[in-house]
Amino acid sequence: MSELNTPDPALCFGGVVDAYDRARPGYPPEAARWLTGGEPLTVLELGAGTGKLTEQLIALGHDVHATDPDPAMLDRLTLKFPELRVSQSTAEEIPAPDASIDVVVVAQAYQWFDKERALPEIARVLKRGGTLALVWNTRDERIPWVKRFGRLIGRQDQDHQGPDEALEDSPYFGPIEEESFKHWQVVDRDSVQDLVLSRSNVATLSAEGRAAKLREVVAFYDDFGRGMDGMQIPYVTRCFRAVVAVRPQRPAPPPVEADPEATDPNGVAVDGEETAPLAADYLRRYDDTGSLPAQNVLDPEPPRADDDSGVLLINFR
User: Fold this and answer.
1) 49 and 73 in contact (C-beta within 8 Å)?
2) β-bridge partners, 178
3) CA dist 178 to 55, 106, 147, 175, Å?
4) Cβ atoms 53, 107 nearer than 8 A
5) What is the pLDDT of residues 231-250, one digit of tens each?
6) pLDDT of 29-43, one tens digit each?
7) pTM, whole model, 2 decimals?
8) Max Cα separation, the chain?
9) How far is CA 127 from the centre of its chain?
10) Backbone angles phi, psi at 59, to 5 degrees
């Protein structure tokens, strides 16, 4: 199978952003409400794509910060929601301060994460009692023709949905809750082709491979579709959430060997230069995003438990 020059399959969607935005199914409002709650919260969406779930989060009144590693997907997202705060970033390096987010939500993207790095990073940005929420749209393949359709277009998305052992065994999160919601997507002869083009296993094919797959899909639609009335694809939206249990601690500064020649008036050794590289590392980590003022990274005093000041001042652009 010939592939595009894409080093990471997770970044292949930018090349099919139009098809993705036109044809990917959305999410039921009740699923978004279960994932995040009915009261307005500070919500970070990782892998937001073109905003299929983002639309529902905004409608619920949440203060949404959306991220995606693909600039083409973010461009489409900001066209649809000009006022939305966005950041081109990954789940492994989140441009947000410690304990600043109520809910981290991930739609159809968790399987792309490096869990060893992403899970502690997500736990770091969540407030005490905060939640990690995952969601997938799953074709209901209990229906025979839907199962045939799945075999035709590829089932890897069905096989990699739901929490994995990394989350189930993670010390950073508690027990996982689950809920499901049903909905239907109506597709016609054109949009079913876009739906298939938007899939990672098809997007990474050669032009000839994609054309051949589309011919198969059109033939299938002509057999099972209803012409102008379209085809209704049944989905089960599978939702999961887990409360943060342990927040990772920042590493302690390395021990400093005091210079015996440098003492203060009380005879205590002084050597402040040795800790500078560590502070610089923290500042670079956040300053490079262009998102967070450096002075918010290393606070001289720990924040009060009831102090949420600064949470809404993050500039994610």
Assistant:
1) yes
2) 240
3) 22, 14, 24, 10
4) yes
5) 899 999 999 999 999 777 66
6) 999 999 999 899 999
7) 0.72
8) 90
9) 17
10) -60, -30
